[in-house]
């Protein structure tokens, strides 16, 4: 399956980002809609994965700067990767890993030296294969067990 990655620009791209997240988190995983979309969406960098025909396949976001510091405990140079979502039809194609690497690159471009993410426990192996290490205990986020993970860029 071929795909193209790009930074979401404009309202049409952001609508595609929201649609992917709705399908994956709200519909598939029963995350309450009011928890899925937050104030960080307005300033985050959103990476969008599109099929050759323009269908949105996946997305993820980068929070950086003062907002990342607020969410990661103030660790200098740490950025936050989040809301990584790949539609079921595109899973197992390498798209998720490509999204992670694109978000990491966007973080490095903005001065990030380390990435933090909050992984669903069922996805720990995926992130470990990409060089992330779990840090701290399992905790609940939107009714789903999560664990914080980090990786030096």
From TrEMBL:
Keywords associated with the record: Acyltransferase, Transferase
Domain of life, source organism: Bacteria
Gene Ontology terms for molecular function: acyltransferase activity, transferring groups other than amino-acyl groups
Domain N-acetyltransferase: 3-153
Xref: PROSITE patterns: GNAT
Classification via InterPro entries: Acyl_CoA_acyltransferase, Bact_Acetyltransf, GNAT_dom
Keyword hit for Transferase: yes
PANTHER family per UniProt: AMINOALKYLPHOSPHONATE N-ACETYLTRANSFERASE-RELATED, AMINOALKYLPHOSPHONATE N-ACETYLTRANSFERASE-RELATED-RELATED
This protein's name: Acetyltransferase
UniProt source species: Streptomyces rubellomurinus (strain ATCC 31215)
């Amino acid at each position: 399956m071929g795909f193209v990655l790009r930074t979401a620009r404009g309202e049409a791209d952001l609508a595609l980002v929201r649609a992917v997240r709705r399908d994956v988190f709200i519909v598939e995983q029963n995350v309450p809609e009011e928890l899925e979309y937050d104030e960080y969406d307005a300033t985050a960098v959103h990476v969008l994965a599109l099929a050759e025909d323009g269908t949105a396949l996946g997305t993820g976001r980068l929070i950086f700067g003062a907002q990342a510091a607020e969410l990661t405990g103030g660790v200098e140079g740490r950025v936050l990767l989040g809301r990584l979502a790949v539609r079921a039809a595109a899973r197992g194609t390498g798209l998720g890993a490509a999204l992670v690497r694109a978000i990491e690159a966007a973080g490095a471009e903005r001065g990030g030296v380390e990435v933090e993410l909050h992984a669903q426990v069922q996805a720990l192996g995926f992130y470990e294969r990409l060089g992330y290490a779990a840090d701290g205990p399992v905790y609940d986020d939107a009714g789903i067990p999560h664990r914080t993970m980090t990786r030096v860029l």
